[in-house]
Amino acid sequence: MYEFLQYQVRDAMTADPIVISPKAKLREVEELFETHDFNGVPVVDERWRLLGILTKFDVLKAFSLDPQAIAPRYDAIMEQVIETVMTRDPVSVSPKLPLSRLLQKLVEMRTKSLPVVENDRLVGIISREDVLKALRRATIKHETPAHEGSRP
After folding, report:
1. Is residue 114, in this structure, part of any structural domain at all?
2. Over the stretch 70-116, which tens digit does the pLDDT of each residue have?
């Protein structure tokens, strides 16, 4: 377990993640969600600067209506550009952040993943699953095998 305390976000993150443009349509991100089972996708500009994040929850919000509104058709909503519903200025982390601190942040925020930013550029994404794998990896490396055939 001590080894885990030495890990940083860069040791467990997914580098160069799939991203989407703020001008893409909701239907395009819906395909990403279905194909990759993502919960969210970073929204970046052409220089990979993080502009926001679009989650399944953001897509659901696009369908929420006020009581006076006439319900728009599904296809019309899915033609909206991402920047109209994305979460702007999302919390991000540095690749140098210790994984133990990231773990605490994920628990406190109750979030599934966070973008990783270095020098104002998206360099990765780190998820709960990535942290769990790192914990497992750190533990497995230091487990001692039980002696076969030993008696109590």
Report:
1. yes
2. 777 889 899 999 999 999 999 999 999 999 999 999 999 999 999 99
Domain count, the chain: 1
CATH number at residue 73: 3.10.580.10
| Separation of alpha carbons 151 and 76, rounded Å | 70
Angle between helices 128-142 and 99-109 (to 10 degrees): 140
Range of the domain at 27: 2-142
Q: Count Cβ atoms below 10 Å from residue 49 Cβ, excluding itself.
A: 13
Q: Please give the structure tokens belonging to residue 5.
A: 């305390």
Asked, for residue 151, whether it belongs to a domain, the answer is no
Residue in the structure block whose two tokens are 């702007």: 88
Tokens of 93: 């982390």
Q: Report how far residue 134's alpha carbon sits from residue 140's, in angstroms, rounded to the nearest whole number.
A: 10
Residue 21 identity: S
Q: What is the pTM of this model?
A: 0.84
Would you say residue 15 lies in a domain? yes
Q: Which helix (H) or strand (E) holds 61?
A: helix 56-62
Q: How far apart are the C-alpha atoms of 108 and 6, rounded to whole Å?
A: 21
Domain annotation covers residue 148: no
